[in-house]
Task: inverse folding
């Protein structure tokens, strides 16, 4: 059974045709941004640990879903009913903001999606997701950085550089293009005098450390100029609780809302590896989803008038088993969801060539089968937001991926 | 941020011994004497009996609990917390009903980090810092840190892991860092901390008695991470079927619960009722059903697998020599691993003897833990409230003790730590440490004793021109020669 679940009314055939049609004509770039007066922004949230797409956006209309996903399946009935998106899918009730944005046409879902990676190692999966390379290996740069580096020199977006949020720089935005790093602040800061002296020493002896420290100081000055107060706790190893997710989004939004602030940002949220007692409408996963939902809200509020030109995409290395495991959780799987939010998103749609959940329809009889390539979604966003050509996307940004076509019409 | 170090610091032998292999100099160290026989200086540490152990019966370690006692304390604390919550819930609801029917019932407030577990964790952290601060030069402690990160558990998993993370390191890592890899592997995978961290205590063979009765089944988390992270390494040729089969072999490996039905609460037990019966395949070899012995036999085999030797060799070379270690060095370490049946003392000696260790530029950024220890060794006694201050620093730097973001541990490459945020935080910490130091001598003299004659002219000049002793000390703590190793 193959069912297309997308509202309002695009047919599966239409989706497939837009893919194929790309062979026919060159991509239309949007470099004439000054003319259309858009000031596009792109925020990438990497959910590390493998998000259970089937508990985030539950296919409540699939007759096999509740049986497979057991006690942690979301449902339209019960004490915490999931929030319906269309006749087939419903979003976890921990995400009311996403549901509201979806209704307002500012959020969308691509379901049954995966990168080209088919094994189940987190760390290789994250490398592939973030590097944009066809397979795991010695990844040192990320696709988002290479996209930034592919913009014409002198372009406003290229000049502003990228923004990396958190105590370390996510791989997705590492690379040659300039990246600003920032995380909520906790320690008392030394005066500028010491900073200037250390910078001067680094400039003479260690340019790599000089560049990093300079960016760190700049980011702090910018972000601390406003309402972010010093009492905020710095996240531990990663951003893996709801409060940290919200906080980091609030700071990032502030930096990105500035006229000369970065237009491209990457955040990494940890903690999605739910092997045990994952929970459904409430519980561990729901708490994390609430944090992600809060981050969407912070961006919506903090970006203000820039929200209308903003696209946020949340991606994860792979999905989780369709059937719950022996410990009311899920093990490493394959297909999952990509979540899209932002005023620039052509929302209100769950885009899915739904593969079904019968045993023979599952990937290796255990995982949601992937029918969309995450790279196609990312390429579509980069093409429509920044005018990158399919050739650059298929070669430089996502090497050896020419066969994966940019998904069209993701941006309103 | 992936750019190479553009100015290579030519490796001074004393700094290689102190910084590449250890935690850095302490005031009073004689760099000239170390440079005369740098290999001998590092090897001397390996000759000391039981150098890696922390003895709880030593008065300065008074109060350290073994993992069983720590887990039982955590179990008891959890019961008390639950009782307190229950007790609080009932009267609160009555009060609410009487006083303010409109206000929501809020009885779920619980401390972010439970106190008993946090106390144990702090004591363990103190012992770990004490050991690292005193070590000369600290090669064995660096090995402990390496293996502890290789076989990591995370205190963020649950209060009970916070309580026993330190004991886990003392019991399953330290006794073996100069012993056999297979022994460490067996100790780690039997340890309640690891079984809990990677969910194995809940994994049940679907065809076991418990599995049939309770309708529960496998959790493949531990099996996968043993193959991918602890031994063979990712991409070394095992398949999903190996993971599933190995998970079945590991069923029954668990920790006795609070009620003590299976044994002394908090200890390792093999629960035959939960063990998946029958023979099982791993990497093409069939293991007959032998209860607990089945997975033990498999662990003993994969500990000696060539892929494991390569995986461990590459990680060790990356840690001690360079982010991209010389392939010849990796090959030599792997060969010694195989030849000596994973004798970690022989491997440590090989590392010290390899020419690459002494010729490769000191370009790796110190990890946050190494940086904080080196800084505290350099500054000496301080007014800071320890170990809380060091633990806070590690959190701020993104490397909270025994709390990595995933089972692959913390990153071991410069790129991961040389971030804008990381450097800015190091500056904050250097300043804080310099401000709180009780008795700062002449920073120029400190520079001479900590980094010595090989220091760059620029660093020397920056410190000599500092506007205060505190600023000079902070500059020393931020100098490239202090940050990189």
Result:
């Amino acid at each position: 059974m193959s069912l297309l679940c997308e509202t309002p009314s695009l047919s599966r055939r239409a989706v497939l045709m837009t893919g194929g049609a790309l062979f026919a004509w060159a991509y239309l770039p949007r470099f004439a941004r000054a003319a259309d007066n858009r000031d596009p922004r792109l925020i990438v949230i990497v959910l590390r640990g493998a998000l259970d797409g089937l508990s985030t956006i539950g296919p409540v209309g699939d007759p096999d879903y509740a049986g497979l996903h057991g006690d942690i399946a979301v449902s339209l009935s019960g004490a915490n009913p999931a929030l319906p998106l269309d006749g087939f899918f419903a979003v976890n009730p921990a995400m009311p903001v996403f549901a509201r944005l979806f209704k307002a046409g500012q959020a969308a879902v691509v379901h049954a999606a995966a990168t080209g990676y088919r094994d189940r190692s987190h760390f290789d999966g994250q490398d592939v997701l973030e590097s944009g390379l066809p397979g795991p290996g010695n990844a040192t740069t990320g696709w988002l950085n290479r996209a930034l580096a592919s913009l014409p020199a002198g372009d406003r977006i290229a000049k502003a550089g990228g923004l990396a949020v958190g105590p370390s720089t996510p791989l997705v935005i590492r690379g040659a293009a300039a990246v600003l790093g920032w995380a909520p602040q906790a320690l008392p800061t030394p005066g500028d005098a010491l900073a200037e002296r250390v910078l001067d020493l680094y400039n003479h002896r260690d340019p790599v450390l000089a560049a990093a420290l300079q960016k760190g100081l700049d980011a702090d000055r910018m972000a601390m100029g406003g309402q972010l107060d010093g009492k905020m706790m710095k996240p531990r190893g990663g951003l893996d609780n709801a409060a940290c997710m919200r906080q980091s989004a609030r700071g990032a939004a502030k930096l990105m809302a500035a006229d000369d602030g970065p237009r491209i940002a990457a955040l990494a949220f940890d903690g999605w590896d739910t092997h045990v007692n994952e929970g459904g409408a409430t519980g561990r996963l729901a708490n994390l989803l609430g944090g992600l939902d809060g981050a969407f809200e912070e961006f919506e509020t903090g970006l203000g008038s820039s929200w209308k030109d903003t696209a946020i995409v949340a991606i994860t290395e792979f999905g989780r088993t369709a059937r719950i495991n022996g410990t009311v959780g899920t093990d490493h799987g394959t297909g999952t969801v990509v979540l899209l939010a932002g005023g620039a998103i052509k929302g209100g749609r769950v885009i899915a060539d739904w593969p079904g959940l019968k045993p023979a329809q599952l990937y290796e009889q255990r995982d949601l089968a992937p029918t969309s390539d995450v790279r196609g979604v990312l390429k579509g966003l980069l093409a429509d937001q920044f005018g990158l050509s399919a050739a650059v996307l298929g070669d430089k940004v996502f090497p050896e991926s020419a066969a994966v076509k940019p998904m069209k019409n993701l941006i309103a | 941020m992936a750019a190479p170090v553009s100015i290579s610091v030519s490796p001074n032998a004393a700094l290689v011994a102190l910084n590449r292999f250890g935690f850095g100099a302490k005031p009073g160290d004689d760099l000239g004497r170390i440079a005369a026989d740098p290999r001998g200086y590092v090897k001397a540490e390996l000759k000391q009996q039981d150098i890696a152990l922390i003895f709880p019966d030593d008065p300065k370690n008074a109060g350290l609990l073994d993992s069983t006692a720590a887990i039982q304390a955590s179990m008891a604390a959890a019961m008390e917390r639950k009782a307190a919550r229950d007790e609080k819930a009932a009267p609160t609801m009555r009060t609410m009903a009487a006083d303010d029917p409109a206000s929501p019932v809020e009885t779920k407030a619980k401390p972010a980090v439970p106190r008993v577990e946090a106390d144990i964790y702090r004591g363990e952290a103190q012992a770990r810092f004490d050991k690292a601060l005193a070590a000369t030069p600290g090669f064995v402690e660096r090995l402990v840190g390496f293996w502890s990160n290789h076989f990591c558990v995370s205190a963020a998993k649950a209060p009970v892991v916070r309580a026993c993370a330190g004991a886990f390191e003392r019991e399953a890592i330290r006794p073996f860092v100069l012993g056999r890899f297979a022994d460490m592997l067996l100790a780690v995978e039997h340890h309640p901390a690891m079984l809990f961290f990677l969910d194995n205590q809940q994994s049940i063979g679907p065809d076991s008695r418990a599995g049939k009765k309770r309708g529960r089944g496998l959790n493949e988390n531990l099996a996968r991470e043993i193959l991918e992270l602890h031994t063979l390494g990712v991409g070394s040729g095992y398949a999903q079927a190996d993971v599933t089969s190995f998970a079945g072999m590991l069923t029954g490996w668990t920790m006795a619960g609070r009620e003590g039905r299976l044994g002394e609460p908090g200890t390792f037990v093999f629960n035959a009722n939960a063990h998946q019966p029958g023979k099982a395949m791993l990497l093409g070899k069939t293991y007959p059903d032998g209860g607990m012995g089945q997975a033990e036999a498999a662990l003993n085999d994969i500990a000696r697998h060539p892929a494991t030797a390569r995986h461990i060799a590459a990680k060790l070379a990356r840690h001690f020599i360079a982010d991209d270690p010389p392939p010849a060095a990796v090959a030599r370490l792997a060969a010694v691993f195989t030849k000596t049946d994973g004798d970690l003392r022989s491997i440590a000696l090989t590392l010290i003897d390899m020419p690459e260790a002494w010729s490769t530029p000191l370009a790796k950024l110190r990890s946050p833990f190494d940086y904080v220890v080196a800084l505290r060794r350099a500054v000496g006694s301080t007014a800071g409230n320890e170990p809380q201050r060091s633990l806070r620093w590690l959190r701020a730097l993104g490397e909270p003790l025994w709390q990595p973001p995933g089972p692959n541990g913390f990153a071991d490459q410069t790129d991961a730590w040389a971030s804008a945020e990381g450097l800015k935080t190091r500056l904050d910490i250097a300043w804080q440490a310099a401000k709180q130091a009780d008795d700062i001598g002449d920073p120029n003299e400190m520079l001479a004793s900590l980094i010595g004659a090989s220091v760059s002219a620029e660093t020397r000049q920056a410190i000599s021109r500092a506007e205060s002793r505190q600023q000079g000390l902070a500059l020393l703590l931020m100098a490239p020669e202090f940050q990189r190793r």
